[in-house]
Structures
1.
Amino acid sequence: MSTAQPVRPLRHRPREQRSRTASAALHTALAVASLVSVFPVAFIVFVSLRGRDGWQEPTRLVGFDVSNYSHILGETKFLTWFGNSVIVALGATVLGVLIAATAGYAVSRMRFPGHRPLMWTFLVVQMFPMAVLIVPLYNILGELELLDSYTGLIVTYCSISVPFCAWMLKGYFDTVPVEIDEAGRVDGLTPFGTFWRLIVPLARPGLAVTGFYSFITAWGEVAFATQFMSSEEHYTLAVGLQTFVGQQKAEWGLMTAAAVLITIPAALVFFVAQRHLVAGLTAGGTKG
């Protein structure tokens, strides 16, 4: 009889170590890339603290003040424009995510006539450039009497964000096991109840990604807001900032200060949604 030989444990190969030169080159490249990405933002903040005419000599390291910020907040309608942008961006985010989530879930779980052409239609409409859509959307909103209104701008932004968000959420819902829907039906939930009470809590990463995309799309959009909003009390930030640029002179100091203030809400939304962004983007791209 042959005796069993003892099994020798596998030895893991030591992880290859980078040379000091390669490590230094990598860290140098990362440092340079970080500086390149941070420099435009830092430069805008720097110029905004140099006063109304400080942009003419941006290399001087004296004469810092907050006169640009005080002028914008106290002597312009920046706060009104800011409030209008918040209303439009939040409205477009909530409505767009709701429509995209229900559309993506329906295509992911239900088989109805035209469900595949529906998703391809969403993809095709994303190929049209924004300049081509301004005239037809203007005519449609004019016939519906929605020009120069929050509702018209919210619907317009939803038409931009919903196709992409529906595609992403459809891919995310495909990763959720169908057994969860079946368990909901066994417990007596309606299809919408299953979606709202079981699927939506599991889809928070995907909803965070689409919500962030919808918010940023509405927050920084210029072309539609410029054409569709005509009264100053309905101006969004994108339209209001154009009043700082005239035919004879441009108030670059005020523009930079306003740009810094505009980035704060977008940065806050990003920090709130960032822990879901990687998971949502990865899961939404696994199936399609």
2.
Amino acid sequence: MGTNVPSDEELAASLEGGFTSEYADVNGVRLHYVTGGQGEPLFLLPGWPETWWEYRKVMPVLAEHFRVVAVDIRGMGGSSRPGSGYEKKSMAADIRALAEHLGHERINIAGHGIGAMVAFAYAANHEAATNRLAIINTTHIDDSYQNFRLMPKPEDAPPHRWWLAFNIVPGFPEQALAGRYRIMIDYMLGLSLVNPDAVLPADREVYAHAYDTPEAIRASQGWFQAYQQDIDDFRGYGKLSVPVLGLAYGGFYDYMNRVLPTCGSDVRVIEVKNTRNYMVEEQPETVAAELTAFFG
């Protein structure tokens, strides 16, 4: 698998806006990022099981207003996969070091999924270096995650988040999925796309190729295996003073609208229609418009 998958350089060059694929050695990790556009810096952090390519549909629009920096977070895609440092607080320090490396004292930052947790941790730990924060479909992990049932009851709202437990099992996922990660990509997208064609087979191959080795799977597990420390860190965070935007869908919008305002003093939550978890790819016009208005 993956022999015909374009390189990050080719993918970056395929986007309008003069994007280039770059690398930086910062904070003990080699980070891959794709950058383009002009204006205030806007960092975009992806979620699992995706890469920076998750933002391909919104990057050209955002690049008309901002200096866009879409980052493969520690352990993802073109970035290196060290044996530790997957706590979201540590990963936020990666992003802070990258911003400094690029000459940005303060940045706007947005994240989805795991990337949303890193973005939140960035604002919580580096508030003076944060202009504004946008969170897409994920709040920072908290104690509520420990109430998810391994065996759901009939009244439990879907989805059954079995992959949280699967990804903290040591040694097994890479044996089960190495060389066939496309199965996981298709499962997760199938679970949460209203329109399956929002992520085409070629895009799914980009993601599968990024996760297809035992090393890549182990690194991605690190994000989940750090969750207990992330919960402990979250308990120590005060209320954010920077402006926060939440974008969420349906039932999760109701949850985010309850939880996110307790985490900051200036919080707005917006519901995005006709989508579920992968709204950046499924409703890119809405996402790009909301991010442009908020960060602009």
3.
Amino acid sequence: MLSIAERRKYILDSLNRHGFVRVADMAAEMNVTKATVRKDMEFLESRNLLYRTHGSASPVNPLVQDVSVHVKSAVNSEIKQKIAVEAAGLICPDDSVFIASGSTVYAFAERIRPVGHLNVVTPSLRVAMLMNESEETTVTVLGGVLYKKSLSVRGEYAAQGFENVICSKLFFGADGIDSNFGITCATAEEAALTQKMMRASAKSVVLADSSKFGRRGFGRICSMERIDCIVTDDGISEQYRRLIEEAGVDLIVVKR
């Protein structure tokens, strides 16, 4: 039987290894009740050593803030470039794709080299201007209210642009990928627009570096099972690798 101090150390060590822990798993591994684990987590949270969520815990506050795309671009920029290169290889000859907004998605757009003719539909002004430089690419820009932080459009008018188009793939980023809440972003408006793009595409591909795992944004896009592929880096924990595999999602991992 582990002592109180040993139990709490075990929980923190597991958090450091896996990025998050479940109450049920900790109870089984330490041979104690779930109530005991919850009490230990309450104590650790009171010392700012973890952050409790429903049935689990993460090492830091998982809630993310909505920040400017220019600020996001400076974070993990080298890793985002590697993810972008790998994701660009998913574009097929004569393809038609949705490209959402965000710093990782923009890095991805920079790496696209069309084979044949490429149709791009996007809410992002930055992506539209970039892809318009390619002679082999036809760009359709969604209308709507311009959101200053992401330089992309949102709202009812943007959603109307999906009524007459179908794409093979949607490429989008995420502010959080959480074991309980799935794929999330900073705002409800962005989540709603992404959901509509998902419905108008055959496959959905998430581009997110490993720092996004265990985090949670305000707007919920979908559950993990709704995604077809996630492209990330090898900083992702083994526990999240297993969750993605269990959800039936293809996982592409690049080296940091």
